[in-house]
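Provenance and format

Records in this collection were gathered into a single text stream. Each protein contributes a sequence line and a token line. The two records reproduced below are adjacent in the stream.
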Amino acid sequence: MSKGLIISAPSSGSGKTIVTLGIMRALKNRGVDIRPAKTGPDYIDSSYLAKAAGRKTLNLDSFAMGKNQLLGLASTYEGAGNKSDELLIVEGVMGLFDGAAVSRVTNVDHFPVGQGSSADLAIKMGLPVIIVVNCSSMAQSIGAIIYGFANFSKDINITGVILNLVGSKKHEMMLRDALLPLGIEVLGAIYRDDGLNIKSRHLGLILPNEIDDAEGLIIKAAKIVEKSLNLDRLIELSSSIKKAKPTSYLAPLGQHIAIAKDKAFAFIYEHFLLGWKEAGAQVSFFSPLANQAPDETADAVFLLGGYPELFGQELANADIFMAGLIKAKERDALIYGECGGFMVLGEALVDAKGVAHKMSGLLPITSTINKPKRVLGYRYLSHKSPLPWAENLVGHEFHYSSCSSNNLSPLFEATDAKGDKLPAMGAVNKNVMGSYAHVISAQQIKSAQLAYGEEKNEC
């Protein structure tokens, strides 16, 4: 039976992504069978984890997925669960207890754990937590921080601490001394290194295929981790993963699904492909940036989310791609776009410089990048559209654009994580449809919840 653990932190900016990349590659170099996973609806970190581990990354989302689906995915993807030396390493999201929402309850005898948080995932999957701490501006205070995190919830098992961004040997000793009374193992100390940084942009980290030497960065992180951490002990601190059958796969969009995938269209969940393969659907890929059209035998076309706003002129000039979309519409193939893909289905895309680029024109909308305005949050979605999915779904939004109003039927009725009603989303024009939502799974349990940082959508 395979084992697993979660690598989390007190907050974003602690360096857990770089540390996790180093751990995965260092263990892979030792011959450990690493299974990479990411907490929540994150496409970008997942691409780095896949590069470090040498295999595709699973998104485990405890807000959108139930316990059986989480355990089922962890048990089965890419042959998982069949070897005794497999190790599922899950990179957390934000701080350990930070999630999209918590139940609206009173008179509780425990502190709330954010739904969709790393802690929520750890509880549902029964996984221990290794916590990475940014020590750059503290010394003895680390004891109070780790004491608080270890005792915040009786259901969380913090089994190890990684000291990150340590300044000196003296600094490391002060940190270790402060943690001695807690009885939680320090797995090692990683010293500050300005060469271990990944550049960011408006939606998060720069994708690894856009960095000149992403592989070199991972190699360097692995070397530092190998000499700085007790990796044997880290493996020993993992726990067995309970086996389960995967549930709630979303039905294939068609029998042959042509998926747009390149630097402009980059975001898809691995559990989609797993479910569609399980259902016997054929999947093919094409690159709009290379001016490729979807396969003419495909009865469904999926335009992924990504960064079309960075490639407006290239897409506008991709005549073969655009003609292929029109031909797919004319043969009644289902055409579905999420976020960036939805934008490309419109008539025009106005980039951050105010330049308008002609798009496919299959939906009567114009999308505009209007940073710094941001729309972010989980969404409960319902629909009565040609999408062959459950009527009630869970998805997520994260974008800096808005789209003009249209006279078409919306694709989704939507609420935020709390259940408060939002404006209807997206558009449907016969067999062409899309919205800003990235769908994650079929809806399972919906309850009144308290949302953090939800914002209204305009389209």
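Adjacent record:
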Amino acid sequence: MADDVMNDALTNETVELLQAMIRNECVNTGYPDSGNEIRNVDLLQTFLEGPGVEIQTYEPTPNRASLVARLEGTDPSAPTVCLMGHTDVVPVSPEGWDEDPFAGEIIDGEVWGRGAVDMLNLTSSMAVAFRNLARNDFRPKGDLIYFAVADEEAGGGHGAGWFADNDYDPIKADYVLTESGGIPLPGSGEPRLAMTVAEKGIGWRKIVVHGTPGHGSRPFRADNALVTAAEVIRRLVDYRPNPLLTDIWAGQVEALGYEGEMKAALLDPARVFDAIDSIESDATAARLHACTHTTFSPNMAQGGTKHNTIPDRVSINVDIRTLPGETSEDVEAHMKAALGDLYHRVEVVPVHEDPSTASPIETPMWATLTELAGRKYPGVRLVPTMTTGGTDSRFYRAKGAVAYGAGLFSQDVTYETFSSRFHGNNERIDIESLALTTQMWLGVAERFWEVAG
């Protein structure tokens, strides 16, 4: 009974902290003066302060603060574990919501609000578990870090990326747990949970198309940069490299519960695209399509000076996401293949590069997560998956750390609903999942170093 009461108390703490973080409205638009993560850092610092906890805050950009809390380990040679949660959220269109996205209300056993899934639910549950450990005089074998980080939603330049480039020691860890995983998967038989072990890389390019200016009333034989740009965009949209179907891809297919002929088709390089085309759910098809190959999405175009003047310059911003193992040279080869004879008529400018990253699963942390998930789902198997977007895990993996998107969610959270609520309308998380994730982090602290030996 005492354990049940303690669990209820911790769950209530997680719910209340999540509500407060949602209400702080740390909305990151991508501009340096947005985010205001200092609001959540101030909240978390007050929440965590107490005996035995080392806390430092960092503010590389005004109001873009991050917090690092540490429980010092008893063995300096033991691996360090970091629980990392970001404190910023993406913008919201309130007219698409049934409830106030920043009220943090509890409705039918769920906490509603921007960030409830991405990822203030985990950031708050990690803080509650960390404080509980500290207040019970827990001493881990290796250091345990709680890292509440700014600017994840806009690339990490004011957060994890800044630490990686300027001051890595305070956050240095051997194992990192962050978003997003622990999601129950459909299908009969043994229970399975998706855990993220990899993410696609970034190879953003700007394509500059040059033409010759002229009067818009005489378009015949004109060298119109906008017309050429339209053909460039068409070729990029039509381009589809050969699929690369790895073990992680097999995990993606399994995560969505496909069996029989459909599963066989999805695992066959010659049939995979047709199989994806046959999927009714747009969200599922888009996710699977992105996981099979490097993708190209022309998302911005700028050019022209006047309504009646033929433009001599148009720039196109292309979001390129690469698979594990692909390099900048591979991106250029793709560009040449996609654009064909137009490649040498345009200027291709690298904008941002981040290689795809992945972590192995033959680790004591994977074994620990499997054991802990089994307490809720006996006989569970963890399925390694890849996210198509970017997370702060990539900064750690680049430094040699093992990073997983982890957690533990209830059966009310399906793979489909979880994905749709990321950056979507009516974002919300059920209280049972908050309870389960809080217990997961406590279990990691209590079991990981025993499993690691």
